[in-house]
Design goal:
Layout (H helix, E strand, L loop, with lengths): L3 E2 L2 E2 L3 H16 L2 H21 L5 H24 L3 H15 L8 H17 L9 H14 L6 H13 L4
Helix pairs in contact: 1-2, 2-3, 3-4, 5-6, 5-7, 6-7
Length: 169
């Protein structure tokens, strides 16, 4: 399902942009950005090798999202371990990586979306209790994919849980 011209698969635009920015960071002698971009480029290349064909735009974005998740976990560990300087470095990397992803949906847009999906499920006869968490998350994630939005999974989970805990009006 990758885009292709003839028989040759097309590289994701994101991968091309990162390649270009690596050269720009070298020319600007920005070692922090260069180090981060090289790490991102290596992760994307590893994913391409695992897949054995060029990445689609969605796969490249998913890889960057995974890198951000890893950095957030590292920040937690560094903070617990009393290493604030390393936590700051990871936070800076997150900022640089996020620049290559579409803007994430904020709480203001996410809550009404989740409330709407939960209302549809309730109207369809689903009981809104803790057992509905799985189907509710699936429905919300399907809607998010349908709308091609980028969301924080933890935040979605928290809002769905809160929505299921609220008594139906």
């Amino acid at each position: 399902m990758t885009e292709s011209v003839g028989e040759v698969p097309v590289r994701a635009e994101l991968v091309k942009r990162i390649d270009t920015d690596v050269v720009g960071a070298m020319k600007a002698r920005n070692s922090v950005l260069l180090e981060t971009l090289r790490m991102v480029k290596a992760a994307l290349k590893n994913r391409e090798i695992d897949k054995r064909e060029p990445l689609t735009e969605a796969e490249a974005q998913a890889t960057l999202t995974t890198l951000i998740k890893q950095r957030r976990e590292s920040i937690e560990q560094f903070t617990k371990g009393g290493r604030p300087e390393l936590a700051e470095k990871e936070a800076a990397e997150i900022t640089m990586i996020e620049a290559y992803l579409p803007q994430a949906v904020g709480e203001a847009e996410l809550k009404p979306l989740i409330a709407g999906v939960l209302a549809e499920l309730a109207a369809g006869g689903m009981l809104m209790n803790a057992k509905a968490m799985g189907p509710a998350m699936k429905a919300v994630n399907d809607r998010v994919k349908e709308l091609q939005l980028r969301v924080d999974g933890r935040q979605v989970s928290e809002f769905v849980k809160a929505g299921l805990a609220e008594p139906a009006s």
